Amino acid sequence: MLSIKELTDGLNAHCDKIGIDIVGFGDSIHFNKFNKENRPESYLKNAKSVIVIGFHLYDLILDAWSRDEMKKKSYHFADSILVDQCHQIKSFLAKKGFKSKIIPYIPGLYLKDAAALAGIGPIGKNNLLITKTFGSQVRLRALVTVAELAYGTPIYESEYCKNCNICVDSCPSGALEGGKYHRDLCYNYCQENLIKLSENTVIWCNKCIESCLVGKTSI
Ligand code: SF4
Ligand code: SF4
Predict the structure, then answer these.
(1) Residue 118 phi, psi (nearest 5)
(2) Which atom of ligand 1 is nearest to the CA of 127?
(3) 77-95 and 4-17 are packed helices; what angle lies between their axes, rounded to 10 degrees?
(4) What distance in angstroms lies between residue 125's CA and the mean position of ligand 2's atoms?
(5) How far away, in angstroms, is 167 Cα from ligand 2 center?
(6) Predicted confidence (pLDDT) per residue in 203-213, tens digit
(7) Protein residue with its CA nearest to atom 2 in ligand 2
(8) Can you say whether the dihedral through the CA atoms of 186, 192, 193, 195 is positive or negative?
């Protein structure tokens, strides 16, 4: 039987091998504050750990969505990579004798909160996860597992944002004003200002991602 450390080290090495940019592990106990449908237990009985992975959007074009009007479905390039990586983690854990489940987007877990609870980084004034290496240029996905892992320390506050207001000032819709994320302002602006890459492929306003300097230079 592997120790918690051995399993965590093995999983970290596997994630590295399959090219995962960011990974963190959170204790499912921290998720009890969320709605029942957004807790790990709702997806997998006896879930002990939440595994959060991130894909570095090294070019924000990677954050593009394609819409299939016939099927009324959207496809997201970066997400398809993340889902594939989740399957590889699931397979790794299965071989070690542990069940796991890939979390769908809806109702899903609160991915940014999950990442912060796993110690990956804080949520910034831009209402996004901030990672030390890639700033907010990441897309996230998560799995839950019955395996116990070595957890990161939850991060509740953003040290990066203390003397910075760049993203708030850069937001064209005012959606980040007043220390709160105004979803409607953001959503309406983005819908009216979609950047079309092709007939069915778009990217949203990403000013709040682009403007954050974390990971680009020291602030
Ligand atoms: S996506 Fe654009 S409109 Fe929405 S919060 Fe970010 S900068 Fe503001
Ligand atoms: S731009 Fe500044 S205030 Fe906004 S998230 Fe980044 S560090 Fe925080």
Answers:
(1) -85, 0
(2) 5
(3) 140
(4) 6
(5) 6
(6) 999 999 999 99
(7) 164
(8) positive
In this predicted model, what pLDDT tens digit does every residue of 139-193 receive, in sequence order?
Answer: 999 999 999 999 999 999 999 999 999 999 999 999 999 999 999 999 999 999 9
Cα-to-centroid distance, 200 and ligand 1 (Å): 21
Do 66 and 54 contact (CB within 8 A), yes or no? Answer: no
Beta strands in 16-125 (DSSP E): 22-27, 49-56, 65-68, 73-76, 100-102
Region 66-72: mean pLDDT is: 80
Can you read off the two tokens belonging to residue 119? 């110690």
Q: How many CB atoms lie within 10 A of CB 154?
A: 14
Please list every protein residue whose CB sits less than 6 Å from any atom of ligand 1. 171-173, 175-176, 186, 189-190, 204-205, 207-208
193 alpha carbon, closest ligand: 1
Which stretch of 17-31, 66-80, 107-121 has the lowest confidence by average pLDDT? 66-80
Report the DSSP beta bridge partners of residue 144.
Answer: 50, 101
**For the segment 31-48, what is each residue's pLDDT rounded down to a tens digit?**
999 999 999 999 999 999
What are 88's strand-pairing partners? Answer: none
